[in-house]
Every structure is written in structure tokens, then in C-alpha cells.
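U., I forgot to send this yesterday:
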Amino acid sequence: MTHAVHTSGDMASSLSSSVHAAFAVDVYPNEYFRYIPNADTPETWLSVGDVAGTTYYAGDFVGNDFSQVYVIEFTLNELHTLDTVTGVATTIGASTPISGHMWTGATGAADGTLYASSTDEAQSYLYTVDITSGTATVIGQITNAPTIIDIAINADGEMYGVDISADNLVRIDPATGAGTVIGSIGFDADYAQGMDFEPVSGILYLAAYNRTAGRGELRIANTATGSSSLVGAFPDGAETDALAFTPAPSQFLQNPGFEDGWPRWDADGAPFLSSTSHSGSWSANLSGEECWVWQYVHIPSDAQDVTFGYWISGVSSDSEWDNDILIGGIWDLTRQTNYVDVRYGMTYVYHSPGVWKNKLYRLQADELANVAGQWGGGRLSTHSGLESGISQDEHSLYRRCYPVRDETYL
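Result:
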């Protein structure tokens, strides 16, 4: 049975969005290069590549190149790059701090300069690093900050760092290294710490490790006062470093959270709107055999990376979950050929009714080749029957294009 819904005659168009996306290195306990599609929900990230056995405690994008993150290998004193599509590491060359010092941070400026910081826990120093050779050149001592753990520079050339000996945010002169204490960050920072400015909003984010809470957290720092506020914890409370933000994504799907009801959506199998939602007022409730929702989307031919996702929650507890499957993916316009087909078992959903779970999937290279340049549709459907039903909300799809990153949140 077809659910009677309004279908718009035009395809989904690009809309502006406040979503902020970033890459980072999960240095402990998992040792993975990660992609965070939405900084508002740092508890959800994707694995880009395995970096086991490395110590990438400093890193950032440089200039307008968002295809690779420049990282300094702490143990080897080398400059590497991490490919944002594959996660593959490439060695550039030796990067050596002054005697007795260890690398702690790095930040890329809009003019193509890579800055780095080091400390011996008594003094901190600022450097430039040649991105073609790895050679480090001392700028000067970062005064009033004996233990700078990371640095970040914004689009206006204003540089800041975190001194974990006093848990202060420090303003740093990029020409001399001179440091001016702004104020306390408001938590006990320890171990690896990352930081970066989101390039469009100018927000300074901290990939913090909060010793009191015993976990890694994403926080926002106030550059006027030094204080910081919690956004959320990283998965497994991971110690996270080399935080590197991409340009702000834009939204592709219209009405992704059903706030305007059914316009822009096709459906089958009688899904219905529910006031039980992850955010906003509405979600779509799916149950039974072959119940689905769909929206048209165009994947640009220059897309280099595509990720889709949505939030789901079980309506009630159900022990008969063995054969219940939720399918997410991208189909062609006939809805007969699926370019991407990702199936999720319902064990967690049924065992934790009312708890929302963010499901994300990053397309493999062969899947991306199939969808790039195509018109199709994002679809979420049930299979084998969901007896108790699920609610689903906030569909998303992100795409990245090079050389300047243009991400789309769908």
C-alpha cells in the first residue's frame, strides 16, 4: 500500500547550514584517524584509517588544501600527512624541535604557513614548519606559558594556545611568540589536547582531555575570557588530538527532520509522523514489512567523499529481533537499483527503547564511483518486519569536493 504523501516536483536544492565538520586523531585508546561529520554531536564519528603505533599529537590543514592533514609524529620527530579520504600516511621529512623539547601542537594559517609548538614543561617555543621538507624554524619563546599543549590560528591571523600547567588560554603573537594570558579554561586539562578554529564561524574548539571527568571532550573556548563550555564527550571518552576543521557544510536535503510534515518526502508502507523526536517536533515512524521514506538527491560528479546517516530509536522493547533489519542507502530514480545498501540489525534499538542512536555510513571507493554525478534518492526502509516499530529523524548526507572542501549535509 502506498502512503499518500505530497511529492514536490523539483529536486532537492542546496541550503545553508550551521553544521561544522572536522577530522581528528583518536590517540587513545583506539588509535584511528577520525571524521566528525557534525561537531554538535562529537559522540558520533567515523573511522578514516588506522594509525596504530603512531603518536600524532599535533596537526591541522594548511592553507586551502583540505585533502590532507599535516601531522607531526611525536616519537619520530617527523612531518607526515594523512589523506582525508583513505587515511594513508605519507612521510615528508624530519621535524626537530630545540634540544630537550617535545612537539605539542600545530596549526595551519590561511596564507599556507604551518606553525608548531614545543615544550620541555618549563618553557614553550613557537616555530614555522616547511610543509615541503619538514624543517622547523624557531620563531621565539611563548612567554607566560611554560607548557603549551596546542595552538590554533584563525582567519584573521590571531593565534591562541592552551597552557596545561595553569589551565589557561593564552594569546600568542605569531611573529614573536610572545604570550598573553587570557584566562582559565575552567577544567583540569591533562594528556593530549587538540584545538582548532572552525574557519567560517570563527569558533575556537578544544579537543580536550578533562582529567576530572576522566574523558576526552569537545569544548568551545571563549577567546575574550578564556572560559570553555562543554559540547559533548568523544566516543569511549577517547583522548583526541590533531583537531582540524573543514569549511562549514551546507544542507542538501530539504525538511530532513520532518518539521514541515511530508512535503519533499515520498513514502510507502504507511509510515506516519510521530511527536517522539530526536530534535524538533516530529519524526517518522516505520514498522512492518517494506516500510520506507525517500527523498531525491543529486551527488555531484566532483564529490570525493560521501557519508549518509540518520537518528533512530525503538518505540518499545521487543525480544523478537533476530530477523528485523533496517536498510539505509542510496537508490536510482526508479527505486529499483541500489547504489549503496547498508543493513542494520535491531538488537540495540529493541533493547534500549526510547534511546536515540545516530547511524552513519561512509561510502567505499567503488560505491562513491557509482553515485558520483547521479540523480538518485536517499532511502530508509524496514525489512523482514519491525513488529514494535522505530522512529527515525534528522536524515543526513555529507559530501566533500576538492581542492576546496565543500561539504553537504543531507
